[in-house]
Amino acid sequence: MTNEITIPLLPCASIDDIVAFYEVLGFHTTYKQRKPNPAVGLQREDLHLQFFEIAGFDPAQSYGSCIVLTSDTGQLYRAFAAGMRAAYGKVLVSGTPRMTRPRARKNADGLSGFSIIDPGGNWIRVFQNAPASPAPAPAGRLGKAMANAVVQSDSRGDARQAARILDSALTHPEADDDPVALVEVLVYRAEVAMVLNDPATAAEMLARVDRVALSADEATRAAAAHEAATDLAAALS
């Protein structure tokens, strides 16, 4: 048989909170019930999610997760980010709910990925569909540190271990470090600090970003990182 559809069913503390959040991301309700058990179905284009409510559920203890494959993680991220900016005035980068940025995932053959952590504590893991050939391994000391930190925080949810990896890399600079990689590491360290509810460190990292000298070509390569820095600065204000 063909044309089967699988839809994840994820837990939450409140289907009303779930609906309010996913509407910001461009979803609409396809089904909703209150009895015998509260549940809701949501859809955005070809992306379907369903949720069920559990009384007393703690999102911080949730193991709910699913994988979404898309042809363009950047396009989907930008759509979600635009919805957040319109609703909240900023991209949510800390607390619950929040969203990470698209980054190459070392533990997914270098494919781009980002995650949404919704009000139910569920991790919606968005990955790029596999290309014809695997992405190259990260190069350089800072690139490798970044790749390892992304696995820890964006994949495993261990922001503290990611901070340790990045702090070690930033504490021992080398003369041949790529300045674009340095900007990317500093911005990511600021994002990790926001996840850890450490705005002072986040502000320090963003201030260091402003002091990194870049050529015109390097500034072009660092454009995505600087966009992320702008979002983080807005979240701090």
UniProtKB/TrEMBL annotation:
Highest rank taxon of the organism: Bacteria
Gene3D superfamilies (UniProt xref): 2,3-Dihydroxybiphenyl 1,2-Dioxygenase, domain 1
Cross-referenced InterPro entries: Glyas_Bleomycin-R_OHBP_Dase (IPR029068)
Designated name of the protein: VOC family protein
